[in-house]
Amino acid sequence: MEFDLDKGEWNNGAFLKLQYSVIEKKINQHYFRETTKLYKIFGDSNDEIAANVAKEMRTDVEKFREYLWLIELLTTEAMIKKPQHWKDIFKECQINEIEPNDEMSLQIIIDNKLMDHKEIIEEISRRADK
Question: What pTM, to 2 d.p., does this model score?
Fold first, then answer.
């Protein structure tokens, strides 16, 4: 339940206020580790229903882990302080529907397929940090 609440906040809250280090730690050191332990415990106890629930939870955590690189690269101090870098990303990725603002969420970024443009985002983020 805690993961679902966090995931909802991370997906729908203000993207520019996300803290990568906090999210990464919760995902990798807490949620992933705990769901893996639960899956093993329930699998060893032959409780198939509980094992399936733990497996689904782990799959959900793994799916969210795929977004970590995006959060890391787009929430750096340089990216937050200079919206021009966002405009460069949107222009190079040919995304015209969104503007960088406080209403922008991870879900909006995902829906606009920024996950498909990792190389562009890496380059602009690296440039921003210099």
Answer: 0.86
In order along its 130 residues, the chain shows pLDDT tens digits of 899 999 999 999 999 899 999 999 999 989 999 988 888 888 888 888 888 888 899 999 999 999 999 999 999 998 888 888 988 999 999 988 777 777 899 999 999 999 999 999 999 999 998 8
Q: Contact, 79 vs 125, CB < 8 A?
A: yes
Residue 57 in contact with residue 38, Cβ under 8 Å? yes
- Tell me the three-class secondary structure of 106-124, residue by residue: HHHHHHCCHHHHHHHHHHH
List CB contacts of 79: < 8 A, sequence separation 6 or more.
73, 85, 86, 125, 128
Residues 6 or more apart whose Cβ sits within 8 Å of residue 97: 112
Cα 120 to Cα 6: distance, rounded to the nearest angstrom: 28
